[in-house]
From TrEMBL:
Mg(2+) 1 binds at residues 74, 92, 214. It catalyses: L-histidinol phosphate + H2O = L-histidinol + phosphate. Belongs to the inositol monophosphatase superfamily. This is Histidinol-phosphatase. The keyword Lyase does not apply.
């Protein structure tokens, strides 16, 4: 089988994304479970020297290897968002977990082409676990294929959200409507929950108030594993999305969850 130039480029970009994860891992672990000065950003989320150091190192490498690509980062701003190729990076997804010693924080790396995520990596520095998704290819957990659970019914679903504190009053009502119908609801995990969804251990995730660097890398991973991830209206996630994210193991489960949300919105 002949390898096309596009396939070779995608393979090279995937290798580069893993290089970025390799750069991030030792820096994050250098600061993990140490005494840190935790600052508050304008949105009141915590930020540490670890976040800033990891992102600075990744940005330097992107600029060195792909100076014509745009970058959308959490800590050091955005540039080149009008370019065809954009990297969306979250140096430490789950900073609250990080500063409290929980090992499930991650580094998220996404590549967007023409505004759509075609490559995503969920890297967990403490455990060394990684999920990789590329458009048109099956998702990988490490060197093995991963696949969602196949759950098609909310009544049998294991539903996660990072914390009930992420919801406003209306969002919390919708979460209660969903989780009240689910077989199990659990809290925590940040990006780790989405990796578990891709590997079939979690069936659904429901969250709000996320930023593009929180969700862009998740899209290729979830979709390549057979799942569905959209906003609460079922629309594709983009840089302009409002950060309301629903992910499910199957299209059937996703449709059922969207139906619950529609009913809940009408009732509220």
């Amino acid at each position: 089988m002949q390898t096309t130039p596009a396939a070779l480029k995608n393979k090279a970009l995937c290798a580069f994304a893993h290089e970025l994860a390799d750069i991030a891992q030792p820096i994050a672990l250098q600061y993990f479970r140490t005494k840190l000065d935790v600052l508050e950003k304008q949105d009141l989320s915590p930020v540490t020297i670890a976040d800033r150091s990891v992102e600075a190192a990744m940005r330097d490498r992107i600029t060195q290897m792909h100076p014509d690509h745009g970058i959308y980062g959490e800590e050091h701003g955005q540039h080149g968002l009008d370019r065809r190729d954009i990297w969306v990076i979250d140096p430490i997804d789950g900073t609250k977990s990080f500063v409290s010693g929980m090992p499930t924080f991650g580094t998220l790396i996404a590549h967007l082409r023409d505004g759509a995520p075609d490559l995503g990596v969920i890297a967990i520095p403490f455990t060394g676990e990684r999920w990789t998704g590329m458009a048109g290819a099956p998702s990988m957990f490490g060197d093995s294929l991963c696949k969602t659970s196949g759950c098609t019914s909310l009544s049998k679903a294991r539903l996660y959200t990072t914390s009930p504190d992420i919801f406003d009053a209306a969002g919390l009502c919708l979460f209660e409507a969903l989780s009240g119908r689910a077989a199990m609801r659990r809290f925590g995990g940040d990006c780790y929950a989405y990796g578990l969804l891709a590997s079939g251990h979690v069936d659904a995730v429901f969250e709000m108030d996320l930023q593009p660097y929180d969700y862009m890398a998740l899209v290729p991973v979830i979709e390549g594993a057979g799942g569905v991830i959209t906003d609460w209206q079922g629309q594709a996630l983009t840089l302009a999305s409002e950060g309301r994210v629903i992910a499910a193991a199957t299209p059937e489960l996703h449709r059922e969850m969207l139906g619950v949300l529609a009913s809940g919105a009408l009732d509220s």
